[in-house]
Amino acid sequence: MKRILTIKAEAGMVVAGDVYGDNNHLVIPRGTVLTIDIIDRLKYYSVFDFYIEDDKSVKLKSYNMDDLERHIFSEYKIESGNYYKKIKEGEQFKIFENLFQESVNNITNCINAVVTKSEEVNIDQLLASVKKITDDFKPDVSLFDMIHCIEGYDDLTYIHSVNVALIARVIGHWMGFNEADCDALTICGLLHDIGKVMIPIEIITKPSRLSPTEYALIQTHTIHGYNLLKNIDIDERIKLGALQHHERCDGKGYPNKLRYNDIEQFARIVAIADVYDAMTSNRVYRKGICPFEVISIFEENIDAYDPKILFVFLEKIAQSYVNTEVVLNGDMEGKIVMINKFALGRPGVLVGGAYVDLSRQENLEITALM
Questions:
Q1: Which residues in the chain come in under a pLDDT of 50?
Q2: Within 13 Å of residue 324, how many CA atoms lie on the same side as its CB?
C-alpha cells in the first residue's frame, strides 16, 4: 500500500485501511472504491491523507451515452422477473403490438420513399399511426412497459424510431406542451434517425463494439438526416432534432459539440428518449435493463442532459413504480414504498417487513421488476 494526499486522490482507487476524521470518526472503511462523491466526503471531513492499495484500482462505470447500445450490457447482470411476462400475456398488449406493427410499417415505407424516390414526408400518415397508439393507451409509463415487451423484430432502426416517438410524445405531455407541439415532437422522434439509412447496414447491425473508424462513420447519420430533411416543408425543430439529438448539454456530443443553449429543445428531449429506449428495450442478443438501473445511469451522467426535462422524466418513471414488487441483487424480494428525489434510482424498499433505504445501501440495487 502507499500513502496519498487527498487532493491527489482519483476515482477508482481502492482504500487500504479504515479512514478516520476528527474525534476518531470513521469516514470510509477499508476496501472502499473511491468515487468523486467519496473524495468530496474526505475533503469535507478534512482528511489530509490516507493509504491506498498499490497498483490496484477499479474501473468505474463510465458510459459513452451514444454507444450504450453496443457495450453497456456487458457490464450488467440482467435479471428477469414476472412483471413484463404478465404484461405480454394480457389482451391490452396484443392490441398494442398490432398498432405498433402498423406504425413501424408506415415509417418504413415513408423513409424508403423519401430516400429512394425523393418523395415528400407524409406527416399526416406518420402521425396518425402513432396517435392511434396514444389514443388507445394512456400516455404515461405504462406505455414504456409495453415498449419494453416488444421483441422479435429484425429492423431495429424503425422499431427504435417508433419507440422514441412514443417516449418523446409522453415527455411532451409531461412538460405541458400543447397538442400541436406534441405532434411535432412525435414526428421529430420518428425521423430523428432517418440518416441511418445512409450508413452501411453491417455497421448499423453490428452487435459488437464499433471500431473508431466505424464509430466516426455512424456519427455522420445526424448530418445525413438533416440533409435529407432540410429541403422538406416540415417544422424546423424536426430537422434540428435529426441533426442535434446526439449533442450533449456538457458540450461532449456530436456533430458540433454544442452546449445547452445552442441545442434545440426538441433535440434535448429526443436525446433522453433515444438513450432510455436503447437501454430498456429488448434485443435479440440481450434483455433490456431494469428502469431503476437506467435511472441511476442517467443520474450519474446528469450534466449531459437538460436537467429540467430529465428530472421530470426520471421522477415520473420512478413514482409510477411505487408499490411495485421488485427483485434486489442477492435474490431478495421487496416492494418499493418511497421515492428519494435526490437519488431516484435508489428508492426506499420494504424487504421482509424491514424498510431499506437503497440510497444508503450501496451494496444493494434493484435488478428487476416482479
A1: 59-79
A2: 25
